[in-house]
Amino acid sequence: MACGAWQPPRLEGLPISSEPEPLRAAPAAGRVLGTRSGPLALDRPVLVGILNATPDSFSDGGLHLDPGRAAAAAAEMVAAGAGALDLGAESTRPGARPVPADEELRRLLPVLRAVRPAVRVPLAVDTTKAEVARRALDGGADLVNDVSAGRFDPGLLPLCARERVPVVLMHMQGTPATMQERPCYSDVVAEVAAFLGARARAAIAAGVAAEAIVIDPGIGFGKTAAHNCRLLHRLDVLVALGYPVLVGVSRKGFIGELLGGRPTGERLLGTAAAVALAVARGARLLRVHDVAAMREVVAVAEGVAAA
Ligand code: HH2
Prior knowledge:
Blueprint (H helix, E strand, L loop, with lengths): L31 E4 L2 E4 L4 E7 L14 H13 L4 E5 L12 H15 L7 E4 L3 H9 L4 E4 L9 H8 L3 E4 L17 H18 L7 E4 L8 H9 L1 H5 L6 E2 L5 H6 L9 H13 L4 E4 L2 H16 L1
Parallel strand pairs: 3-4, 3-10, 4-5, 5-6, 6-7, 7-8, 9-10
Antiparallel strand pairs: 1-2
């Protein structure tokens, strides 16, 4: 794919090679993520319900800023089959500007305080900031979901190591403010695999246990629709790195594009197709808005994949 004048940002100490990582054994059946709320078994795909305490998220912005409403939505998602929830207070939609830590905490903590006693499943905090992650872990969160894979805040991976919590390491080209300007790769699958392998090694070097690492291709984060499709098509390459793979396709722009410009609220069936394909190719965690519908999708996809 032609890259024009765009150059990928140089990331200190991060070799982005066009060669994939050497393949490791596929994840053992019965893999479990240890969390403070108990083990999260990954032998079957887990639905991670999305709860954004933001005014501006691309899909559920403004819906869950109120703690009472957020707690009710959390309980509903768990009753519908969510095995974990992901709480975020900073939108990472294309073009989003960073939110200062105090504002992120002002949105997040009241929602976390309401949601924590309402559900027993593990709660992830979706943040790139060590200070926000620390306060959320103190407030009952169980794992950290970092869309920057520990690059935006050097304190984040050491915090996960100290607190002995699992961490999701996601690939992104650029930053949310700029990432969709001109996404460019010579081989998107190999480059994302090399990045995730390198970030997993950085997490281990910071003291995070290998068993506590989850990787994520970062669907929609500095990628065209073609890049997203290619990554889903070759998800097996990421699965072969040996870490559980989380995929977040829910209602995303590439689905709207593939459907000829569908708005966010009309992407349920497109999301279902992408979730089914991700499960068939080995995704172990599916980050979704529509938990009840995706539970059926996952059950059928899993049945077929396992046959
Ligand atoms: N996608 C979004 C946010 N966080 N985290 C991971 N690990 N993987 C993803 O694909 C991912 C993520 C974006 O979706 P959403 O939270 O619904 O919207 P917004 O960023 O506008 O709040």
